[in-house]
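cache lookup: miss for this entity combination. No prior model stored, computing from scratch. Input as submitted by user K.M.:
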Amino acid sequence: MPVQTAVTNNQEMAAKTREITREKFKFKLSLIGPIAALIIFLAIWQFIPMLLDIKPFILPKPTDVLNAAIEDWNMLWPAIQITVTESVIGFLVSAIVGITGAVVLASSKIIEISLYPYAVILQTIPVVAVAPIIVIWFGSGYNSIVIIAFLIGFFPVVSNTLMGLNSVDKNMNDLFTLYNSSKWQTMWKLRIPAAMPYIMSGLKISCTLAIIGAITGEFVAGIGGGKGGLGYAITVAAVQLKTPYLFACAICGAIFGIVFYLLVSLISHYTLRSWHESAMKVEK
Amino acid sequence: MGAIQKEVVCFRQVDKVYNTGTIALSQFDLSIREGEFISFLGPSGCGKSTALRMAAGLGNVTNGKVEVFGQDPKEVIRNTNDIAFVFQDANLLPWRSVLDNVLLPLELRGSDKKARKETAINALEMVGLKDYLKSYPRQLSGGMKMRVSIARALAAKPKMLLMDEPFAALDEMTRQTLQMDLLDIWKKENTSILFVTHNVYEAVYLSSRIAVMSARPGRLSKLIEVDLPYPRERTITRFNEYVEMASKSLEHSMGRRELV
């Protein structure tokens, strides 16, 4: 950490102020740039169907999508709520089961060596292929969808946590040995805290995957009657050629994905901010 | 130091061969007296760190025997706080504050909670970091981190302090201050210190005895008794004579390595 030196004269002060202004400008640019790009993108999207006279059910204009979203808001909003609930529950279950599972695996070399290969193999099975079986076992609706969301989000948590638990510095391990630390003391006071950055990046991957899992789950196990999530709404919209509404659903799913990811990143930032490089502001 | 000196560490005909086939120690014989400050001086690969690790019970000897306080070192670390180790990098837990880092050994040993904090604060006071209890390691300089590491080692009131090139990564000014402070602590706490270094000046400045080692296989090549009063002056002739003597033994031990 650089030591703050005393500012000796005005020149230095001025230089510093200039630097801060430049920083601020950079910050503004980093905000304005993407927004400008988005506006340009939306404008092109708006004009191409108009110029080429493409029908809205093939490629709806942004305004069509917005209209569809407003018109069918009383259908869209419940669908969003359902998907959000399913994804969040699926994510939480995969986080809890994943972290606990990794701790159990890491607590014994024998268990880890025996079971980890199967965890990898299970992960390579495409969840979409297993989904119908899960529907057969657990029926249509919430349960199956949450399980599918869990299955898809679970593995990144396990593998990341496990990697973190096993990446403890050798000297640190020696230090704990010297103080006659028990296996679980080492786990709680050294391995789990040391694994936190890994666990957090696992959770970041898992939260977006849980949404994919939920929407995929709804494709196969979604039920109608006001109880279908975004995935179900998308399948229905596709069949009815309500393309603008389909776009609205997909965009809502994407927005939720971004929000969820930012939320998990924020939690990660606050957990690690006191010590980990990834969460620290670098002073120049 | 008393007339009758107890032995704290004893290496008897110790061989250490790593799984990779590297012979780290060969026929290593050394007896360390209570209260002494002994430096292990040698080129890299001479097994000086290995000797220290064996004395701390971190790893098994291939042949021979290491005894600490007349016992197997593994037993000593299992049952007592008598051995403390300071690593080359400060080895602090980055998610713990300075105070919590020093508390760690006491926590692991399960001592009384209130007394624990007091002990830790005392240890930090001894290294001059009483005002940094709440800081995190990343906020400290290299020298300060090393001080925390020393405080952590002292917190458990060890009888023996093992230090593996603790000042090697520090700048010269910081190193000299820490060397002085370490000598003060040594005198105050009456511990035995085993100190690994590759720096001749450091060895002569600090130690009551220097064990010069040669490399591949690691052997003891010479024992130098440094008969200079503390605090030592780095500029006097006698100091420099010892430096020369130690350097010559070191050269000699390295020369042998080139012949091998």
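stored under new cache key. Chain A touches chain B at residues 1, 169, 171-172, 174-181, 185, 189-190, 193, 196, 274-276, 280 (CB under 8 Å).
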